[in-house]
Amino acid sequence: MPISIALAGKGGTGKTTVAGLLIKYLVKTGKSPVLAVDADSNANLNEVLGLEVFDTLGNAREEMKKGIVPSGMTKDVFMDMKLQQAIMEHEGYDLIVMGQPEGPGCYCAANTLLTGFLDKLIGNYPYIVMDNEAGMEHISRLTTSNVDILLIV
Questions:
Q1: In this structure, how many other beta carbons lie within 10 angstroms of the beta carbon of residue 64?
Q2: pTM score
Q3: Locate the CobQ/CobB/MinD/ParA nucleotide binding domain: which residues (predicted)?
Q4: I need a surface site. Which of 9, 42, 141, 144 has the fewest CB within 10 A?
């Protein structure tokens, strides 16, 4: 089982900066590969890590909802493919970005998708670092269930 580290706290306190520094430290000290998770709808962990986001889990879900599924492919296979494409691979770590919710203030589906996808991936990484949105709601949404270390910034 990987060691999972989640960051939580008030907005503007430096959660994303700490997450980025922690990811870089783990990689530098040979603890890779690290799974970096940006579970904030206002995603910017990629900027701290110096990466450009091309796809998010939210985008994958929206494509499936619009029915953009190639013929000969089931929705489940299509969704798995899109989720795999949303992983940004870099030296020593991979980044997954949750993305925007489907409606104002509605994060349930995005969080459920993220949680389910993480369950499939956790066996591939010794460390998971999750940068969460401001506040503590992600705990009640179970996005941060099974966390070994919760850093409150």
A1: 16
A2: 0.85
A3: 6-91
A4: 42
